[in-house]
Design goal:
The protein is of the alpha+beta class and 449 residues long. The chain contains eight helices and 13 strands.
Length: 449
């Protein structure tokens, strides 16, 4: 037995040494072949990818694809397209500039609220007959009812305030309600990354790379010198309930800012300061309310729900091009599809955009419906009406609302069943969705804590 063992290992070692070079060569050949096949497959796939530039260059597409590739080569989104997607492009997403705007009601609501938030005694929108559902109106205040108060105060220079001693220093948390016109900003988040690398102070107007300022950056520029720490080179920290993309408006965004300065009537001071500076800069930004909050208050982690509406003007169904308009005929199908999502924890990966940066893509919509509303304007005989998408949920993924709106419209036009959106969510396949609706009609209404 010992003799066999002495001969066993030398023979095994010699066998491996003799065959290893050949095995390695074969392995290398196999890997090279697999790489060549993958490259060839990718090359063939590119022939079937439609790079969509404008609706004039598109035709009726069947089993074709539209995709967007990020700077690192990652496919951000990809989808299958057909004639229903072409319809959506023409009536909503890539609507010709020579046609009347279909977001006039959304724009009017934002402008009216920012101009009269302190004195509004009646709703901004009214539900039309046959669409009355007053039980949900409190979820969308102040759209269907406004209770506001005025916090006016004379603006006083910030130099009169001094910091408390370190021993007695007390931090004050301020909860701010903010309204802004989306077209004036590149979105909520401050994109000036150099500020977060301890750069010198710079204002929004100094940044030539971003022609539009951000809401967060504008607030930081105004409030930083007044209530921030002068020794800190970083901008003042402002937390928010929901970050909005470029072009998305808000009438009830909730923010938090902190200060260690002893400022008498700090709530009124902050509101007056921001509103005056924004008016002087001709920016659609208003602080509608400021109040002190507890030290544990956080507008994002503490929010139990967030409310959005998406408004699209309804067009007269008369005329020759009835198929190229969004009319009230789509409402019943839209409402049924949206109500199928209500009260269910679902994976909204298929109706989200970009890389997933959150721990989960599960979301719950507490309220999901479509209705018809009309804009309340003094001196206007014919009330402008709009198709209103109402969504209230515990959380929303990136572009989730706009993708729900676009996909729901496409499926309603196609004649899809009541479970059309549910089936797309269940598939977890982003190719099944439509393009996102434009940001112009989207509005952040409120966040409940």
């Amino acid at each position: 037995m010992s003799c066999c063992r002495r001969h066993m290992y030398p023979m095994h070692t010699a066998y491996v040494q003799y065959h290893s070079p050949n095995m390695i060569k074969q392995l290398v050949k196999k890997i090279a072949l697999m790489i060549a096949i993958s490259a060839l497959t990718a090359h063939w796939s590119c022939a079937f990818v439609l790079h969509h530039h404008n609706h004039e260059s598109t035709t009726n597409l069947h089993a074709s694809f539209l995709e967007s590739v990020g700077g690192d080569g990652t496919i951000i989104w990809q989808m299958q397209r057909d004639e229903c997607d072409e319809w959506l492009d023409q009536v909503l997403i890539e609507r010709s500039i020579d046609k009347p705007s279909i977001f006039s009601v959304a724009s009017s609501v934002v402008e009216s609220y920012m101009s009269n938030y302190a004195n509004v005694s009646r709703p901004l929108l009214r539900r039309v007959p046959n669409c009355e559902d007053y039980s949900s109106d409190d979820l969308f205040q102040p759209l269907f009812g406004v209770c506001s108060k005025s916090n006016a105060v004379d603006l006083v220079s910030s130099t009169m305030f001094t910091r408390s001693s370190k021993k007695n220093r007390k931090r004050t948390n301020l909860k701010m309600s903010v309204a802004y016109r989306g077209l004036d900003f590149c979105g909520w988040e401050d994109q000036r990354h150099e500020l977060y690398r301890n750069s010198n102070n710079s204002s929004s107007t100094d940044n030539v790379e971003h022609p539009l300022p951000s809401v967060q950056g504008t607030l930081a520029d105004i409030l930083g010198p007044a209530i921030g720490n002068a020794a800190n080179t970083k901008p003042i920290e402002i937390k928010v309930s929901g970050r909005t993309d470029r072009g998305v408006s808000a009438i009830g965004q909730v923010c938090r800012v902190r200060t260690w300065k002893d400022i008498p009537d700090v709530e009124a001071y902050v509101q007056e300061l921001v509103n005056r500076k924004a008016t002087d800069s001709n920016l659609g930004l208003r602080i509608t309310n400021v109040e002190k909050a507890g030290h544990d208050f956080h507008p994002s982690f503490g929010a139990s729900s967030r409310s959005y509406v998406y408004l699209i003007d309804l067009e007269d169904s008369d005329g020759d091009n009835k198929m190229l308009r969004i009319t009230r005929n789509l409402l019943p199908s839209l409402d049924r599809m949206l109500r199928e999502l209500e009260g269910k924890e679902l994976d909204y990966f298929a109706l989200s955009h970009g890389k997933v940066k959150t721990e989960t893509t599960l979301c719950t919509l507490y309220h999901s419906k479509a209705s018809i509303v009309e804009c309340i304007d003094d001196g206007v005989d014919h009330k402008r009406q709009a198709l209103c998408f109402e969504l209230v949920g515990n959380r929303f993924l990136r572009r989730m609302v706009r993708l729900i709106v676009g996909t729901a419209l496409r499926e309603a036009y196609r004649g899809g069943g009541d479970d059309a959106l549910l089936r797309i969510l269940t598939s977890k396949d982003r190719r099944e969705r439509s393009r996102a609706a434009p940001p112009d009609g989207l509005m952040f209404v409120r966040a409940d804590m």
